[in-house]
Amino acid sequence: KEHTLVLVKPDGFRRGLTGEILRRIESKGYVLKGLKIKQADRALLEEHYAEHRERPFFQGLIEYMSASPLVAIVVEGDRVIEGVRSLMGTTNPTLAAPGTIRGDLGRDWGTGQVENLVHGSDSTTSAIREIALWFPELEYHAED
Ligand code: GTP
Ligand code: MG
User: What pLDDT, in 10s, does the model give residues 15-51?
Assistant: First the structure.
């Protein structure tokens, strides 16, 4: 079965949107296989977002993601990686389509930081890497 890593980011958790985000994922028919509240440290986040290390927004991204607790979730289902990305909507919450998590619940706050409530792995390779990083105690991988 296919698995993906979802994060309810600090802004989503702080705003009390965890239940709403999980409701959308579960209502779609996907199954939760692991879930924890965690305040991520810089080392974990620098590893998680390693592909963005050279981008100008990297330090701000690490600050945003480490500022307060988040929720990490492993989700299972057929084509769940693509399916969750579709539920999330595009990166910029002002532009994300209505009907998506980011489009319905997110917006630009004028802080210069893109706060977009949720993360979902973007490929099979990313999902395997990210689940191992956030859930070293679980045997779940993207497909097994
Ligand atoms: P994730 O699921 O969090 O990986 O988002 P994504 O796949 O939609 O976007 P991407 O991987 O390109 O970027 C990762 C995260 O970096 C985004 O979710 C944003 O929080 C942040 N980010 C991306 N682009 C920008 C940008 O241009 N400016 C700022 N400030 N942040 C950005
Ligand atoms: Mg990404």
Answer: 999 999 999 999 999 999 999 999 999 999 999 999 9
CA-nearest residue, atom 13 of ligand 1: 91
Is-contact 2 74, C-beta < 8 A? no
Domains of the chain, first to last: 3-134 (3.30.70.141)
Nearest Cα to Cα of residue 34 among 66, 76, 70, 2: 76
| Residue 84, CA distances (Å) to 51, 53, 63, 102, 115 in order | 20, 24, 25, 12, 18
Closest approach atom of ligand 1 to CA 91: 8
User: What ipTM did this prediction achieve?
Assistant: 0.95
pTM as predicted:
0.96
What distance in angstroms lies between residue 91's CA and the mean position of ligand 1's atoms? 6
Gap from CA of 123 to ligand 2 centroid (Å): 9
Ligand 1 atom closest to 119 (CA): 2
